[in-house]
Design brief:
By secondary structure, the chain is α/β, with parallel strands linked by helices. It contains twelve helices and twelve strands. 39% of the residues lie in helices and 17% in strands. Helix 1 crosses helix 2 and helix 7 packs across helix 8.
């Protein structure tokens, strides 16, 4: 048996070509990793960025993805539409950015890849090009026919999931409904069990308002919406604590460990996590029929091509993806009939 063929295969989308995505891919070529990685991007852009950074890379192509080795990078070439200058956005390349996601998505769904890891994209330039795009999370859900997904970031000893994602703050309160909370908490609970191997997850839930509404004096969402939703799910055996005041919730974790925090909106939960983990945080999309992780930062146009982009978050995203893929593979290997499937080669990723 070829040992390389036993290694998981990851699709790494290079992201916005004018940003630090290509820089991160080039930096990754210098790392030793226990997997096979195929970078989805424009091979000429990657070669040019490697030259700009002064890093020698052996670019490998072909349908077969070899074991990753320092100094080399397997690339699946998907061409850009317009010449790329590091740090300068061009809406003409937005379709290319989305094509990278589409290709990785298709490969995950057909079993060619065990997981996808995404470098950052620039939402504004994609919208400027005429595509309605609010983020990776929503795009992958829409294009995999997944009814509901949950954004969760991990790092610094924390896991923080979001009830709402990319919404204007004035729209958040109306978005917090019993149906939303039921769906989000069920996905979070199920994936903590299935993808992270936590048998009985303990989840702390933040309130929406200051001081969790102060018994209704600062808002009634906790009384009318959040608490009833939590109580129904507690009745099914879920370990849910809250709604808690967000300003003290994270300090509470020091004495009462939990498996995840559910924040009501983006900037309620993520500042704490990014302070604790910046440089090594990971964005994870829960609820998808495949594994997707990402860096926790943006395109950093001012750093593109300078050699100052940090690869820590990408390495952490790859590590989490590999851990999840290994756990998924282990679960499948214990399923009835798995031995005969392996013998027939039906589980081969490529």
């Amino acid at each position: 048996m070829n040992e390389a063929a036993e290694l998981p295969v990851l699709a790494l989308t290079a992201g916005e070509p004018a940003g630090i995505g290509p820089d991160l891919c080039i930096a990754l070529s210098q790392q030793a990793l226990p997997c096979r990685i195929s970078v989805l991007g424009d091979a000429d852009v990657l070669r040019a960025r490697a030259a700009q950074l002064g890093i020698a890379v052996d670019f490998v192509s072909g349908d077969s993805v070899p074991a990753h080795r320092p100094g080399a990078l397997h690339v699946r070439h998907l061409p850009v539409a317009a010449a790329v200058t590091a740090g300068v956005l061009d809406p003409r390349n937005s379709a290319h950015v989305l094509a990278l996601l589409d290709t990785a998505l298709a490969g995950c769904l057909n079993g060619s890849y065990h997981a996808m890891v995404t470098a950052p994209v620039h939402k504004a330039v994609i919208n400027d090009a005429g595509f309605a795009f609010t983020g990776h999370t929503e795009y992958l859900a829409d294009h995999s026919d997944t009814q509901k997904v949950v954004m969760m970031l991990a790092g610094g000893g924390l896991r923080v999931a979001l009830a709402t994602t990319h919404l204007p703050l004035r729209a958040v309160a109306d978005a917090i409904t019993p149906a939303l909370l039921d769906a989000v908490i069920r996905i979070l609970h199920a994936d903590l069990q299935g993808k992270f191997g936590i048998a009985e997850p303990r989840i702390l839930v933040a309130g929406l308002n200051p001081h969790a509404g102060e018994a209704g004096h600062l808002g009634r969402e906790e009384i009318d919406t959040i608490e009833p939703a939590l109580e129904r799910l507690r009745g099914e055996g879920m370990k849910l604590v809250g709604p808690l005041p967000a300003d003290t919730l994270f300090s509470r974790i020091r004495v009462e460990p939990c498996d995840a925090v559910l924040a009501m909106y983006h900037d309620q939960g993520l500042p704490v996590l990014k302070y604790a983990s910046f440089g090594a945080g990971v964005n994870i999309t829960l609820g998808l029929p495949f594994i997707r992780t990402s860096v926790d930062h943006g395109t950093a146009l001012d750093l593109a091509g300078t050699g100052r982009a940090e690869v820590g978050s990408l390495l952490a995203a790859i590590e989490v993806a590999l851990e999840m893929a290994e756990r998924q593979s282990s679960v499948k290997s214990r399923e009835p009939g798995s031995e005969s499937r392996r013998d027939s080669g039906a589980d081969s990723p490529l």
